[in-house]
Amino acid sequence: TRSILLNSRPQGMPTQENFKFTEEDLPELQEGEVLLKALYVSVDPYMRGRMSDAKSYAAPYKVHEPIMGGIVAEVVESRNNQYKKGTIVEGRLPWQTYSISQGKGLNVIDPDLAPLGYYLGVLGMPGLTAYFGLLRIGDPKEGETVVVSGAAGAVGTVVGQIAKIKGCRVVGIAGSDDKMKYLQGKLGFDEAINYKTTDNIAAALEAACPDGVDIYFDNVGGEISDAVYPLLNNFARIAVCGQISLYNTTTQPTGPRVEPILLRTKSLMKGFIVGDYASDFRQGVKELAAWVKDGKLQYEQTITDGFDQIPDAFLGLFKGENTGKQLVHVADP
Ligand code: NDP
């Protein structure tokens, strides 16, 4: 099998040097084990946190061990009665072309229901993040204004569309003109702001949100968020989902104090991790799948080809190279 190990912990922006490719033979399958062939590998911003050893909600990756993440794989050999040869599964697996599993934590997926990559996106972790963050924390009501940052990514695209389903005015913030077109065209966002080319994001937001902001779904943090807070309405809700603009900073980030705004507007600001809602995942996937089936929820994937491209695809997340969910296609079933 070929593997990608964490070679060293990044300081600031990660680079290729932080990853190492190795090749080795796998041992023979033991009773209860399955041999898995990776088909689609998910690269996700949270992995940047696990590459560091700073305190976080997920344990750090170990140096010189394979990076782990969401993978869709095929059972190509089985000595486990639960998983027949040919079964397609999703699970937290090592970045390896082939891996051995005892079957724990694997979810069997139906390749006929949706494209395989969807189980790592809209019907997987990012889709559920959007679903529970928006519905449970944002609690959107018809006519309210929702701002979402990181709007053209795996989570953001789903947040904005669910907000539209709920009858909200939706304003997305993302980093390219193509993404603007995509958000306002195919996805039906009311307004989109390109933070890379707009000189005054605060003024652009004010123009895009004439009735203020009721819900802010924050995927990026930093200066983009600083521009949103002054527009909060009374009883606004802020779902703090991600802070990608700060993941590679090497100094302590500072910004304006937001507490006076939260106090004046009596707003709720809540951080969350998708796993907090694990007991309701089944219900969430069911509703997401129904929206996808009905054509109410569009879904974009940026698929890079080849196991060797996994580190580059991951690094591309920090340069905005993806629209929708970034995946790497490694093999076909
Ligand atoms: P995306 O698909 O949105 O990919 C990342 C995107 O972030 C890029 O395409 C880029 O788009 C944008 N970006 C990168 N660097 C910056 C920057 N410095 N400032 C502003 N935008 C930037 O990733 P996901 O949808 O998977 O994740 C989105 C966020 O949600 C992340 O912060 C992630 O950590 C978080 N998350 C949190 C979870 C939770 O449980 N709380 C679970 C899953 C994700 P652009 O072109 O717009 O710059």
Automatic annotation (TrEMBL):
**Gene3D superfamilies in the record:** Medium-chain alcohol dehydrogenases, catalytic domain (3.90.180.10), NAD(P)-binding Rossmann-like Domain (3.40.50.720)
- Reply yes or no: does the keyword S-adenosyl-L-methionine apply: no
Oxidoreductase as a keyword of this entry, yes or no, is: yes
Q: What is its EC number?
A: 1.-.-.-
Protein keywords: Oxidoreductase
Q: Which InterPro entries match?
A: ADH-like_C, ADH_N_2, ER, GroES-like_sf, MDR_fam, NAD(P)-bd_dom_sf
- Kindly list the GO molecular function terms attached to this UniProt entry: oxidoreductase activity
Q: Which CDD domains match?
A: PGDH
One Pfam assignment: ADH_zinc_N
Domain spans labelled Enoyl reductase (ER): 15-328
Q: What is this protein called?
A: NADP-dependent oxidoreductase
